[in-house]
Amino acid sequence: MGRGWRELCLIVLPTVAIAAWAPNLYGNVLLLFNFVLYITLAQGMNAIYGFTGYLPFGYVGFFGAGAYGFAIAAMAGVHPAAALAVAGGAGIALGLILTPLLRLSGAYFAIANLAAAQAVYQVVANPALAPITKGPYGVSLSAVFAPRASYLVAVALMGATMAAIVWLRNGRFGLALMALRDDPVSAASAGVNIVRARTIAWLLSALVASLAGGAFAWQISVFYPETAFDMSISIFAIVFTLFGGAGTLLGPLIGVLLLYGVYNWIGIAVPQYFQLIYGALIVVLVLFLPNGLVSLLTQRGIRVP
Amino acid sequence: MSPEPPPLLEVRDLVKRFGGFRALDGLSLDLRAGEVLGLVGPNGSGKTTCINTIGGLQRPDGGVVTYDGRRIPGLRPHRLSRLGINRTYQSPRPFASLTVRENVLVAATEGCGSTPPDLDTLLASLGLAGQAARPAGELNSAEQKTLDLARALATAPRLLLVDELAAGLNPTELLRMAERLRALADRGMAILVVEHLMGFIERVTDRVIVMNAGRAIFGGRLAEAVRDGDVKRVFLGGAHGG
């Protein structure tokens, strides 16, 4: 697995090191945190969309489940590390409940998954559950507030997620996933247990999003259901992944750095034009580069990590 | 004289219904190791359904399929693959974004229950060595059909189900494909061939089963089949009989 180790050393480790060191150079840690968060979410989206072809529009459901899993545990006085485990457990549990959605395909899957995320949001935001979730009134985790530690946890999670993508791209399991993405019927003939393979990829991406949600909850410590289940989190993760190029390690990373960079830059410099420019950019890319920026190279037969 | 070995594949009274339509209506057949059996018949007579049912893609509604002394109906294709049953598809189904070599690599690593063949040798023997690094989606239709076969062979099958592999091949490719299948059978593989091209069937098969409306109406050599009254009626229509 020489190629995998090279990608790990030349791409994943430097990204992690830069992200971990960045707060010493740049003061807006929340902005840096959001970059790290979106790289993680885009790579988590990549694991399911890039390798199996399922596009989960309700991806934010796992993120919100993780955020609230962390919050409920932390409010009960659990140590943040254990609360993160609860966040991951919430994501896996939701993923298991939603595995029947994998029987659907294409737009049906995307819509059903979106509806599922909305359902979780409505449950969490329900005032009747206020004793547990604080309902629509939002949670405050000032007791465990630790911006530095939560930032480093997010960086570690980003590194682990990117390492998982390296494994998928270079390992036997990822190859089986890509085969079933291309043609599930002949993948089964070729010996791939398609139900099991899909479920593993699905739970992996659910775990990533829910841990990211947990780190997010820890970082910002005061939030509302609308924040943790904000649809634009799904949209961003999808757009960044598609823009850079799904199924690769670099694609989602480049997608986040460029698009989220542009997003923040336009949002500050010319906020009145932000949605126009951002929307036009996405339309142009989808029309002319449907497989993302990396396809500029892959079309020429160059392998992009 | 030593007794004949039992057939590798035994199909008894196989029934497959789609709604009220009986695509297979009590089909029986035997296939021994090293034997090539052709399945011929008009469109809709149940040939592909037979392959799909034996291959685990569709569940039979009745009957028994025994492979290597073991009943197999209901097993999913990935399990059958590891037991040594594999197939090609009527219209090829490559993993389009993977390279040709990765296509066969998936099958060798995931679907082989014994020792997989050497993949480079396999690709070379099928004339695909030069394409190994190309994405399978870029191959032409004949090459994709050959890749379907390569992928099936990468699992080292003992029973190979071939669904209209010859259609769309030019005469030279047809001849080569026929020789390949014969060579595989000579090394002990059992092969079930569904095909419309009678020249190909004659060249490849040891015997044929003629199907009509989900049943076998004739079993024997192709040369005898064309003299059989029932077969003539099915292929040419009742008025032409005699």
UniProtKB/TrEMBL annotation, chain A:
Cellular component, GO annotation: plasma membrane
Alphabetized UniProt keyword annotations: Cell membrane, Membrane, Transmembrane, Transmembrane helix
TM region positions: 56-76, 82-102, 109-129, 149-168, 200-221, 233-263, 275-297
UniProt keyword annotation of Hydrolase present: no
Keyword check for Chaperone: no
Bilayer topology term: Multi-pass membrane protein
Cellular compartments annotated: Cell membrane
Molecular function, one GO term: branched-chain amino acid transmembrane transporter activity
InterPro entries recorded: ABC_transp_permease, LivM-like
A Pfam short name: BPD_transp_2
Name this polypeptide is given: Innermembrane translocator
Organism: Acidisphaera rubrifaciens HS-AP3
Lineage: Bacteria, Pseudomonadati, Pseudomonadota, Alphaproteobacteria, Acetobacterales
From TrEMBL, chain B:
Xref: SMART domains: AAA
Secreted recorded as keyword: no
Keyword tags: ATP-binding, Nucleotide-binding, Transport
Keyword Nucleotide-binding: yes
GO molecular function terms listed in the Swiss-Prot or TrEMBL record: ATP binding; ATP hydrolysis activity
Matches recorded under PANTHER family: CONSERVED COMPONENT OF ABC TRANSPORTER FOR NATURAL AMINO ACIDS-RELATED
Designated name of the protein: ABC transporter
